[in-house]
């Protein structure tokens, strides 16, 4: 019994933990995609800072001040734009040479070497570093000197296909790493980074997590350091087969990169690959394109190689999914077109029937006049005349029924066309099909159909009630008489009154037929009632005109 309770309790804890992780992942996804939408804001802030620094450098003639300002500009560009960063560090080398300051020259060359190695240009970095006289470097630059060589030979060892060269590069990497490790303080970022890598390479993950946590306490969100530490933590979770936590820290790294306007990043591309493996094709495609744009902007060889391995697969899967959705959309379009055809036929038949009723009514009017002329002669046929009037009344009811049905059907047709327009827009937004999205945003078709609807309604109603405007004006105060420029078209107020005449009193139904909001219909009715001579009985009098 106790064993069962323990098992059920353990399962409950696991489910609760999974639920919390899912919620955290969803929240981070929303934050990340919001940052992606607003990435231009952070980039504009960086560009504004760079613009101010450039203005400061332009306004000073002191070469040392120019060197310092250019160094600041280089730091802004270092992970934002490789070409601009390289341009400004080369300018600093020229300034240092002009100042004839070997220390500044070596400092600038060292920074150029770090820039080259960070972007995968390992051989160029080693070539640049070979220009530096190590014995001339001050203590403050020795660590960076060893770091640059360590990273350079590490990259060459990893990327070369020649085993002999790989062995040579690996030995040099180990030599510089050991030299660096012997110099640095135990709890500095450099020492912790090397220690974490050693634990990670030896798969001592618990110790690696402990060191990474120490590093994470030393950095803040929105910095390059935070992005690197969280990315390396995601690698630990990957080795530990904790994919959800891996994605969380990749998202944190990507969010920090966007906030810091860092274009030289790896987290977004890695995240896209994970999502692709899980089958989230849309997000994978969105993220890999974002990563590609950053890599292209920065001109990063490393990122281009990584993206080139994943982007074709993701793009192909996305295109296949888009093709399937497009085929499904085409089938839906065909179905809606057939439905629209049936609706048009129905509207035509109803209109034709209404026209017949209208002709019959005119014929009955003529018969009524004749009956009046011969009333004295046909007193004996009074009962027949009553029956004829009864039939005429029934025809009027049928006429009103058909008009009401016609209006409802036509309004529903417009609704369905509008639903179709929104549906197309939804699919287009999901698939980023720009041409169809532009089509879905156009309301021209609905507006045209609504105009045709109003024109047909006005024509039909005025054909049945040709004196309707005069009858309404008799119920209104003299200063509120309605005057139409075009006697064959009703305005909005008269259309509302026409529907009331046809027995449609409900404002919601009137709003649906005329394509207005319910509040708008209420306002129109209130305004018309105020203009009536007899406000209390105005709408009832309309029904009898």
From TrEMBL:
Tagged with keyword Chloroplast? no
Q: Which UniProt keywords apply?
A: Coiled coil, Membrane, Transmembrane, Transmembrane helix
Q: State whether keyword Flavoprotein applies.
A: no
The protein's superkingdom reads Bacteria
Q: Which InterPro entries match?
A: DUF6377 (IPR045957), TPR-like_helical_dom_sf (IPR011990)
Q: Which residues cross the membrane?
A: 332-351
What positions belong to coiled-coil segments?
357-395
Pfam families cross-referenced by the UniProt entry:
DUF6377
Q: Where is the DUF6377 domain?
A: 257-511
Protein name in the entry: DUF6377 domain-containing protein
């Amino acid at each position: 019994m106790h064993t069962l309770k323990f098992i059920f309790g353990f399962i409950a804890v696991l489910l609760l933990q999974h639920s919390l992780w899912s919620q955290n992942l969803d929240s981070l996804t929303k934050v990340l995609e919001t940052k992606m939408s607003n990435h231009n804001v952070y980039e504009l802030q960086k560009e504004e800072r760079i613009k101010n620094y450039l203005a400061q450098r332009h306004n000073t003639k002191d070469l040392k001040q120019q060197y310092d300002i250019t160094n600041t500009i280089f730091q802004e560009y270092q992970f934002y734009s490789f070409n601009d960063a390289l341009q400004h560090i080369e300018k600093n080398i020229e300034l240092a040479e002009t100042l004839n300051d070997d220390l500044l020259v070596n400092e600038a060359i060292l920074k150029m070497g770090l820039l080259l190695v960070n972007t995968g240009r390992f051989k160029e970095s080693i070539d640049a570093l070979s220009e530096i006289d190590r014995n001339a470097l001050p203590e403050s630059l020795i660590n960076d000197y060893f770091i640059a060589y360590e990273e350079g030979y590490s990259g060459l060892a990893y990327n070369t296909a020649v085993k002999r060269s790989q062995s040579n590069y690996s030995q040099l990497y180990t030599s510089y790493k050991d030299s660096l490790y012997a110099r640095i303080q135990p709890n500095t970022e450099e020492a912790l980074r090397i220690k974490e890598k050693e634990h990670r390479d030896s798969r001592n993950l618990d110790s690696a997590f402990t060191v990474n946590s120490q590093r994470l306490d030393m950095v803040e969100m929105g910095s390059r350091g935070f992005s690197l530490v969280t990315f390396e933590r995601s690698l630990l979770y990957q080795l530990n087969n904790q994919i959800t936590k891996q994605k969380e820290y990749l998202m944190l790294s990507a969010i920090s990169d966007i906030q810091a306007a860092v274009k030289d990043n790896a987290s977004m591309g890695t995240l896209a690959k994970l999502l692709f493996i899980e089958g989230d094709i849309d997000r994978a495609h969105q993220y890999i394109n974002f990563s590609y744009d950053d890599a292209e902007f920065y001109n990063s060889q490393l990122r281009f190689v990584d993206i080139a391995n994943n982007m074709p697969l993701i793009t192909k899967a996305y295109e296949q999914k888009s093709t399937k959705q497009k085929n499904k959309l085409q089938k839906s379009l065909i179905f809606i077109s057939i439905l629209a055809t049936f609706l048009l036929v129905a509207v035509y038949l109803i209109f034709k029937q209404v026209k017949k009723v209208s002709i019959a009514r005119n014929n009955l009017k003529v018969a009524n006049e004749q009956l009046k002329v011969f009333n004295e002669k046909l007193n004996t046929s009074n009962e027949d005349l009553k029956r004829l009037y009864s039939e005429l009344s029934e025809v009027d009811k049928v006429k009103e029924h058909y008009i009401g049905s016609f209006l409802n059907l036509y309004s529903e047709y417009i609704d369905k066309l509008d639903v179709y327009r929104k549906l197309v827009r939804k699919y287009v937004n999901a698939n980023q099909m720009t041409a169809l999205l532009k089509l879905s945003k156009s309301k021209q078709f609905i507006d045209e159909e609504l105009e045709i609807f109003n024109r047909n309604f006005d024509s039909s109603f005025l054909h049945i009630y040709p004196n309707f405007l005069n009858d309404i004006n008799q119920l209104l105060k003299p200063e509120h008489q309605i005057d139409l420029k075009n006697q064959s078209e009703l305005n909005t107020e008269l259309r509302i009154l026409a529907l009331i005449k046809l027995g449609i009193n409900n404002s919601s139904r009137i709003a649906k037929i005329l394509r207005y909001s319910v509040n708008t219909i209420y306002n129109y009715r209130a305004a018309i009632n105020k203009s009536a001579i007899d406000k209390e009985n105005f709408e009832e009098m309309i029904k009898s005109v």
